Amino acid sequence: MKIKSFLLTIVAVTLISSPCFADPVDSLFNVVTWSETGGGNGHTYAILKMTITWDSSRVIVPTLTMDTMSGYLATATSQAENDFILDNVVIGAGVQPVIAQQFFLGGEEQSSIWGWLNGELFNFTNWAPGEPNNGVGIETALSMWGFEESGQPAGKWNNTLPNLEVNPYIRQWSVVEWGDPDTTQGSEDTLVNIVTWDEAEGGNGHTYALLKMTITWDSARVIVPTLTMDSMAGYLATVTTLEENDFILNNVLSGAGVQPVIAQQFFLGGEELSAVWGWLNGEPFNFTNWAPGEPNNGVGIETALSMWGFEESGQPAGKWNNTLPNLEVNPYIRQWSVVEWGEPDTTKSIIEPEPVAAISAYAKIPAMVEIYLGNFEGDPEIYNESSVNYSSIVINNTVIPQSIVTISSHPEFKSGVVRISVDAADFLGTYDFMWSMTQQSFNVAGMFSDNTSFSNDAMVRIQGHIAGDVNLDGSANIIDLTFLVDYIFRGGPEPILTETSDVDASCNKANIVDLTYFVDYVFRGGPSPVPGCTEN
Q: Cα(425)–Cα(434) distance, rounded to whole angstroms?
């Protein structure tokens, strides 16, 4: 790419009082393009010959435009780019003599992590011996050393003070770059630490890798399935056992020294929907490894799952965190993703409708819960929906199905499924009394026609009871109050559940105190009925 023209605009900033440092009109020199035909990126570079602080430079440089494109403090993301800047911009091919000084680059350290201001990945480094050397949070700006006159190794990096007092004798000039930053590199370039968990070593035969793109979880869930390996699409990794968790931590995050790990989060394929966590690929969410206090930020807010890295993150390595799925991308706190390739352990079962309402156990017309079972492990010619021995199926160890049929397809499964209908009262009777929305596990067990047994665990949301819902219609309102009045004063029917009619949670049967409490709630804006007592 040839430069036809450039427009230079510099904000008027009074940096120091000496007239020797008035902003020069012609403040860019050694303007050069790293041509693509020469193996470059097509970007243009120059030196801004203003002796200013790094903090001032990061403000001024974006005001410099070339071919309508704003500049930024240069990134050096490879040895080749670093060498090009050194040999063609810093030395300037003899156009401008170089004197001992630093040349500011667009790197900054935040919270112990170095990153580029423009969002590119900070994977390549070229530190001078002993650098970075002055502690976290002090020398947080990046510069490149000039030639021999500086007494430092030419082209090597130094961490420096971003607000270092201007010294006209030790020049602090800046390297400016124009060109589209490479913030979304191709998938072939963004996978590191690719490793297979061998079955011979107790693994699942799946392959894992890090996607080194600093993106949101929402973006990762879209991009990851486009990454293929041996014709198999990837998915954000599932972690279903402590052994798998440790393998990912010790072999993918650490990379056995292949890829240095810096403090960051690593996205996994877990998502919370309506207070229930699950895996995107449909595997049962039975194992968890939350960090202390997690998940901690409320239902419906931090709904994506990540794993903490090593000690540099200040969090327990390998433990889980719930995070925002659309968290703004921060190049300093990397949000990379763990990708997995392999057939998921997808023998699964789901329940419809979900959530199951606890009050359905008391419906006048018996309610049914439909359980769908499919995606069986093993040889699909032998183990499929047609080879299940219906009479062997049992739910939660005790519940016998009302009916079982085979259906040819279901949108949640990749082939035919077995639909198992159970009485809601029988199903809910296998759980303790519940308030509000809860997540519970359920089990479907049975045998195939060859007498091979199967047992599948899955999760279901159950909408528990509501305090004050005396008539069990799913809400607490004036109709329930009328029910209580009728019961207490007119000999009407007794509430079916003592727990929901005990609106003051006193663990007594409904009485005049509960009625008074309820009247205050319905007509006077008093406190809501209190869930809590389950002793009756």
A: 14
Instruction: Kindly give, in sequence order, each residue whose CB lies less than 8 Å from that of residue 143, ignoring residues fewer than 6 positions away.
Output: 54, 102, 103, 104, 105, 157, 158, 159, 160, 172
* pLDDT tens-digit map of 379-431: 777 777 888 999 999 999 999 999 999 988 887 777 788 999 999 999 999 99
Cα separation of 409 and 29, whole Å? 68
* Helix 478-490 and helix 512-524, axial crossing angle in degrees, nearest 10: 150
Cα-only R_g, the chain? 32
Measured in degrees and rounded to the nearest 5, phi and psi for residue 138 equal -115, -70
Give tens-digit pLDDT for 248-270: 998 888 653 444 444 467 999 99
When mean pLDDT is compared across 63-72, 143-152, 277-286, the lowest value belongs to: 143-152
Question: pLDDT tens digits, residue range 415-428?
Answer: 788 999 999 999 99
What whole-number distance in Å separates Cα of residue 29 and Cα of residue 48? Answer: 7
For 503-507, what is the mean pLDDT?
A: 85
**Spatial CA neighbour of 53 closest among 100, 16, 10, 107:** 16
pTM (two decimals) = 0.47
User: Concatenated DSSP letters for 363-383?
Assistant: -SSPPEEEEEEE--SS-TTTS
CB 321 within 8 A of CB 303: no
Q: How far apart are CA 458 and CA 444, in angstroms?
A: 8
Point out which residues pair with 110 in neighbouring strands. Answer: 113
List of residues 6+ apart from 404 with CB closer than 8 A: 390, 393, 418, 419, 420, 421
Asked if 402 and 420 count as a contact pair (C-beta separation under 8 A), the reply is no
Q: Say how far apart CA 82 and CA 60 lie, in whole Å.
A: 22
